[in-house]
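haha ok so turns out i had the wrong file open the whole time. this is the CORRECT one, sorry everyone. sequence first:
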Amino acid sequence: MISFKALHDLPLGRKLTLAILGTSALSVLAVSIFVLIYSIINERMEMHDELESIAHMVGDNSSAALAFGDDFAAKETLESLKNQPSIEVACLYTTVDDVNKLFAEYHSASKTCPATLDIKNPNISATGLTVSAPISLRGSKLGVITIHQNFTNLWAVVRLYGVAIIFSMLVSLLVAGLLTMNLKAWLSAPILELTDTANKISESGDYTLRVSNYGEDEVGQLIQRFNGMLSQIEQQNLDLLESRETMEQRVIERTAEIEQAMGHLKDAQNQLIQTEKLAALGGLVAGVAHEINTPVGVGMTASSSLHDYSQDIMQELENNSLTKATLTDYVENAVEATDIIQKNLGRAADLVRSFKQVAIDQSGLERRNINVEEYLHSILTSLHPVLKKTGLSVEVICPNDLKMETYPGAISQTLTNLIMNSITHGYDGEKNGHISIEVERKGDIITLIYADNGKGIAPEYLPHVFEPFFTTKRDEGGSGLGMHILHNIVTQTLQGAVRLDSELGKGVQFTLELPMNLPAIKNDAYAQGASSTG
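then structure:
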């Protein structure tokens, strides 16, 4: 028997062939079995009716012989059953004092009639059918006749239908096979070309290849998306080549880029203050300086130590006094110092990117109509690997026909920030928590209520949650920008409002009120990629 795993590995053409042939065979077999069973039941009923008619006829012809006790005439009457080869035994009984005693008999086989009769009408056994019929004359019961007929005729019908079933299955498989030969190429051609193109690209790295258009069905849409993905990769490769060609020029312009980055950072600071009005300019600049100064300072210290180690080892090398132990210590210190430098410079770079994305334009944001329930589930699907590790359950309560014209990317960023914030702050490593997302429509406003049953927020922290750089996890790497970016997305990009309610030990609840039909905003932006949950 072929296992399901083996079926999964079969080529698509063979799967189509097996599916069509298997379906055809099973369908014909099921119908044939039904017809066969029906025919057997019907044939047996007709056999019973015919045998009962014969019993009544022979019984009527034997009534005179019973009345005059003429067993010879009775036997002659029973002998007329020779014309029915399937009738094996016929027994004629006379009834005396309610006891049926054998009077005459006929049998074509080795079977004989019992001396007395216990009437069972009809009696069906594995060998045949037995019927009994009373014999009367002018209202007076004279006796009983029983006739036993084998199933020879019935098995003949069964064999006939069996041959018909086999013939029908062969014909159906032949027809299905011919159809499969024509349909297989039609159904599998686009997928086979898609697979072939993907293999060629994998082997050659040539992203200029494209798959032919096969229509607008699901496979056609898949091919269109595949071709679109190839176009994006091709453009990215061209951009990468161009970037490599201009690398030397970019190195020369490094100083100018750093000055420009600092300008963007200042712009981000101003944008945060003007949009949210949650902190003064001085506090923002101090937060930026503090956040960047710490990793840069640690990196500078490690770099200085590495420099001192290098000078010492160089001096010993010049004096020919360098030992293996000294060199080993130097290598260990160098590895430790470079690791510190790398981690802290990476931290500083991440902070700069976070600060930049607060203010950068996002003119490429796409506005479209979405089904809210489906989109929320797609976001949760993308977060499944993270949620699986935490053991948190997420429940979505939303009408399945609710739609809105908005920026889906902004909603995705908002919900992602909320969930990551719950994981980081609400549960802090605890498992078996519960998050609920309830959506309802109130006129032209869609209300999204996000709630978790985590630790909640202390009252003294509530007024500062949406402020930039406010975090209770600074010692664990939090930047304090997650909720601030979320507030910007909701109030600016989505043109809505957000409200936070929380009690310590009872979780949090964020209430978002968003317009159902969001008008397009020129040069609208939200902090792309900002996933800090500070």
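DSSP finds 14 helices and twelve strands in the chain.
again sry for the mixup
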